[in-house]
């Protein structure tokens, strides 16, 4: 009995002092993890946030204001009724004309920003530089699996996840299958972004995505429908590959 207690104490001590060992043991008892995530454009904004925007950093959270000593011009280019419009300002504060043109832009089109400036540095001679970025306005309704998230989860479990042998995914192993929901809700552009290192499993995941029922497509308030990109991830989401995807779980608010 004493020997058993000593062995149990030694194991608990080892597990506490070696958390990676403990977590790896726990992972073996858990079900295989999988998620469907929306892949967002590099820069996007809701219509509500666009209407409240007053400065360039409001449009682009990563806007490098510290690079700029002096503005030369700030051009904003939009598409309105199929034609290009341009509004020019001289600071990072948006003019009323710039705001109006962005809010009147055709839904589903890109808005481009061009900033000409003198850089902030210690050089005795500076040449003018340019920053460019493009952003999109998010539709009010994202693409959705007909039946909801719970039925999507159940479909993937039945068609793919439950057919994957236990312990196939180990450590940081991750498979990622990208796909697009087009303007009529059909699945397309299905391809392996990150392989499971097993061709049969990759094929199983791709087949499950390809055979999914049609979704409800993404839609703007005016009825315009647009395509959106998604990814099915299976395995360990701490894999560094996830850093290459601008993802957010389906149904999670921005």
Summarize the structure.
This protein is an alpha+beta fold and 254 residues long.
Could you please describe the fold and organization of this structure?
The protein is of the alpha+beta class. The chain folds into two domains: 19-42 and 141-249, no CATH class; 47-137, no CATH class. The chain contains seven helices and 14 strands. The protein has helices at 2-17, 19-29, 47-52, 56-59, 96-104, 149-159, 199-210; strands at residues 34-39, 44-45, 68-80, 83-89, 111-119, 129-137, 144-145, 174-181, 187-194, 215-216, 218-219, 225-226, 228-235, 247-249. The strands form four sheets. It has a five-stranded antiparallel beta sheet with strand order 9-8-13-1-14, with helices on one face. Strands 2-6-5-3-4 form a five-stranded mixed beta sheet. β11 (218-219) and β12 form a beta hairpin. The longest helix is centred in the first third of the chain and has 16 residues, at 2-17. The protein is globular, with a radius of gyration of 25 Å. The N and C termini lie far apart (56 Å). The model is unreliable at 4-29 (pLDDT under 50).
């Amino acid at each position: 009995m004493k020997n058993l207690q000593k062995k149990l104490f030694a194991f608990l001590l080892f597990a506490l002092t070696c958390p990676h060992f403990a977590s790896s043991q726990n992972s073996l008892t858990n079900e295989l993890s999988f998620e469907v995530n929306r892949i967002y454009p590099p820069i996007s904004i809701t219509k509500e946030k666009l209407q409240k925007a007053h400065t360039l950093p409001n449009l682009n959270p990563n806007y490098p204001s510290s690079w700029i000593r002096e503005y030369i011009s700030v051009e904003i280019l939009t598409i309105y009724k199929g034609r290009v419009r341009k509004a020019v300002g001289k600071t990072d504060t948006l003019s009323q004309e710039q705001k109006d043109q962005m809010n009147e832009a055709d839904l589903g089109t890109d808005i481009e920003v061009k900033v000409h400036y003198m850089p902030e540095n210690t050089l005795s001679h500076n040449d003018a530089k340019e920053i460019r970025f493009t952003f999109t306005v998010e539709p009010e309704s994202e693409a959705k699996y007909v039946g909801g998230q719970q039925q999507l989860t159940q479909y993937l479990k039945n068609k793919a996840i439950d057919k994957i042998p236990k312990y196939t995914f180990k450590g940081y192993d991750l498979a990622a299958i990208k796909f697009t929901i087009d303007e009529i809700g059909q699945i397309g552009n299905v391809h392996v972004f990150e392989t499971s290192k097993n061709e049969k499993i990759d094929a199983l995941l791709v087949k499950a995505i390809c055979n999914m029922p049609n979704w409800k497509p993404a839609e703007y308030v005016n009825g315009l429908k647009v395509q959106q990109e998604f990814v099915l991830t299976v395995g360990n989401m701490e894999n560094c590959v996830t850093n290459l995807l601008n993802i957010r779980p389906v149904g999670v608010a921005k």
